[in-house]
Design goal:
With 251 residues, the chain is an alpha+beta fold. 27% of the residues lie in helices and 29% in strands. The chain starts with 8 loop residues before the first strand and ends with a strand.
Length: 251
């Protein structure tokens, strides 16, 4: 049996560009996480953190379950009362055919259908060619730069388009068909990785990527892409620029 003195931990994994590990570790430690392990790759270091799980979650589940049971009980009671009252409401004197004919209202005159309004096309996607602001963040050497956070906040919900590549692909929370895909700017390289650390989070590589044309047989680290996506937000604790796929094509 688990006692109050036993501590349970939750774990998370973050990825930092080589040389930027200390910045990422500090951001997580400020939120109460501690480092468990580090695994270095060619371009990135995978860092595992942990922190004690809150003890109040079980109480919240108990309260939520009681509230749900109370709501279900109320709904069932109302349904039973409604069924009991239904026969009484349907009883009454029979109506003769003559009365029915007199009580019928004349049919409404036909009206012309309203024309369907046309939807105006949405704004064009921001590209590095027509947006100096976007081009500037794609050239940054620090993917934790405050300029990236400011751009994401200013353009939340906007559409961006840029050439990119898959820098990393990992299962989402241990799933077998859902992935977190790290997207870099420009062409894939083993020696440099400028720009923000874009991420498609919790996507299926077949259905959610919105492939333009034929769906590729497979994609992986190093695949160059043409990316069109909606700005979702910037996760400062992990320096991730979250985007939602609108259209993706292999270059």
């Amino acid at each position: 049996m688990t006692t109050d003195t036993e501590v349970k931990y939750e774990e998370r994994t973050a990825r930092a560009m080589r040389g930027m590990e200390s910045r990422t570790i500090k951001k997580w430690q400020d939120d109460g996480w501690e480092v468990v392990s580090q695994t270095q790759g060619k371009l990135q270091t995978e860092i595992t953190f942990r922190r004690p799980k809150p003890k109040s979650r079980r109480l919240l589940w108990i309260i939520g379950g009681a509230a749900l049971a109370l709501i279900l009980g109320t709904v069932i009671t109302i349904g039973v009362i409604g069924e009991r009252n239904a026969p009484a409401e349907s009883t009454g004197a029979a109506t003769s055919p003559t009365q029915e004919a007199l009580e019928e209202e004349p049919a409404p005159e036909p009206t012309q259908a309203e024309p369907t309004p046309t939807t105006a096309p949405g704004p064009a996607a921001l590209t590095p060619e027509d947006s100096p602001e976007f081009a500037a963040i794609l050239a940054l050497g620090d993917y934790c730069s405050s300029d990236i956070a400011a751009f994401a906040a200013a353009h939340s919900g906007d559409t961006i388009a840029f050439p990119g590549y898959i820098g990393a692909i990992n299962p989402h929370n241990g799933a077998t068909t859902r992935y977190d895909i790290l997207i870099g700017a420009g062409d894939y390289s083993e020696t440099s990785a400028p720009g923000p650390a874009f991420q498609f989070r919790d996507v299926n590589t077949t259905n959610d990527m919105r492939w333009a044309g034929d769906v590729p047989d497979s994609v992986g680290v190093g695949t160059n892409l043409a990316v069109t996506a909606e700005v979702d937000g910037y996760e400062e604790s992990r320096c991730l620029f979250l985007i939602e796929p609108v259209s993706t094509a292999v270059r």
